[in-house]
Design brief:
Two copies of one chain form a homodimer. By secondary structure, chain A is mainly alpha-helical. Chain A has six helices and two strands; from the N terminus they run αααββααα. The model of chain A has no long low-confidence stretch (mean pLDDT about 90). The structure holds a DNA duplex.
Chain lengths: ~130, ~130
DNA sequence: TAACATCTATTACCATTGTAGGTGGACTGG
DNA sequence: CCAGTCCACCTACAATGGTAATAGATGTTA
């Protein structure tokens, strides 16, 4: 697996690394809201599993604590996430968009941004 | 759980019911592409689990085969799916859209449709 | 009606995810 | 130097999802 599948909790852990840079387990744990924060060893277990999946690695030590750094980019992980999500809809975009809009998750600004991005992309293709 | 979480395979099974109406297990199984089609009993197991989750129910019998009908609408299930998905992105739409577009999953027609839908929705709100 | 096909119901097993306890080693403040 | 704290490492366990075999009931047909 070049791009391992990451669960929600795994994503949140990676997010800590992406947002705050290489961190110790304690630091990762503390990025969770106090309310409902997982136990230290829970985070530890997930970090170890992410290590096996090669999503992160031990960088160095500070005191006796390991510092971990991400091996997967946020972008790559999100790409994977989007792909799986579309797979759930049989790859058909239409219902996805409709759902996003009707749920009010998509504003006209989002759509405008999307349009601009699309234009830029097609321009880039034509004039490299 | 009013809206149980459905996995990919569960979704595919529900999809058979949504698309073709109340069906027997054999019929559901046969909606899967021959290549990689799950065993009859695999589908059966998932259908039973969906029954426990109250996502579908036995309607009547034909011969000795049960006919199942959906209890959850495609729309409701998709809403749930989209919500979970957005949760993975911390609810921020922007990276989602960017990802969709850059992956080429989103065409200009999709965006145009989205625009129209947005317009219609806001009109409906103003002039009921 | 006897053989055959089909379906139901039950049971099992493995992988993944989330959860965390326990034990022992390493560091630090006094 | 030694007590307390922090951390690493190992182990465990339950829920969920995917996979399916087996056994027994029921229906179909020659």
């Amino acid at each position: 697996m070049r791009l391992p599948k990451l669960s929600k909790l795994e994503l949140q852990i990676m997010d800590a690394l992406w947002s705050f840079g290489p961190s110790a387990i304690r630091e990762i744990q503390e990025t969770f809201p106090q309310k409902g924060r997982p136990a230290y060893t829970t985070v530890q277990t997930m970090v170890y599993r992410l290590e096996i999946k090669k999503a992160l690695r031990r960088m160095h030590k500070i005191g006796n604590a390991h510092i971990f750094e991400p091996l997967i980019s946020r972008d790559a992980a999100q790409r994977r996430l989007v792909d799986d999500f579309l797979g759930m809809f049989g790859g058909r975009m239409q219902p996805v968009m409709a759902q996003l809009i009707e749920a009010g998750n998509l504003t006209s600004k989002d759509v405008a941004d999307a349009e601009k991005l699309l234009r830029d992309l097609s321009k880039r293709k034509k004039e490299p």
